[in-house]
Amino acid sequence: MLQQKIVIKIKFKCKKCRSKAMTIAAMTSGVCSVKLEGDEKDRVVVIGEGVDAVGMIVLLRKKVGHATLELVAECKD
C-alpha cells in the first residue's frame, strides 16, 4: 500500500486545542507521522498508509472545532 499525505486546516482556539488535534491525528490507525505547517501553524499534515481522512476530520470537528480537508495525495518521499 502506498503512503498518502493528508493536509487538514483547523481553526485553533488555543494551544491546548492544537495539542489535542495532534494527539487525535497521531492516534488514528495507519498514521506514520504528524506535523504542523503554515504561517500560523494552522495545518496538520498527516502521513500514513490506509488512513481514513474523512473519519479523522469528523473526529477533529467533534473534539477540536472547525476543520477542513485541503489535500489527500500520494506521498512521494
TrEMBL record:
Domain of life: Eukaryota
Example GO molecular function: metal ion binding
Membrane topology recorded in Swiss-Prot or TrEMBL: Peripheral membrane protein
Primary residence: membrane
GO cellular component: membrane
Domain HMA: 3-72
Coiled coil: none
InterPro entries, A to Z: HIPP47/16, HMA_dom
Biological processes per GO annotation: plant-type hypersensitive response
Intracellular or extracellular location(s): Membrane
Protein name stated in the entry: HMA domain-containing protein
Native source organism of the sequence: Salvia splendens (Scarlet sage)
Lineage: Eukaryota, Viridiplantae, Streptophyta, Embryophyta, Tracheophyta
